[in-house]
Write the structure tokens for this entry.
Amino acid sequence: METKHTPGPWTTSCGAGLFVSAGPKNIAMVRKHGGDGPGEVLLPDAETAANARLIASAPALYDACEAIEAWAAERGDIYVRPIEAVRAALARARGEAE
């Protein structure tokens, strides 16, 4: 299946938030809201940085899931439970499931 997402690799960088980028193109900005005022943005912390790294790893994780799915298909789906989880994750990434 042809993917519709921005191809990887994706990287993270810090500015007025944590940015996830593919080359010169920003894909997402990860910020944590909170504090005293409405809409106040907090400085990046360890959790925000971890979230940005997880988002940035999405293309590689997707490719890994596709490789596992293909590997299992060659073996007749003898690893049913883990492959069901991989297929569910791929379906969510493709927009085929919630």
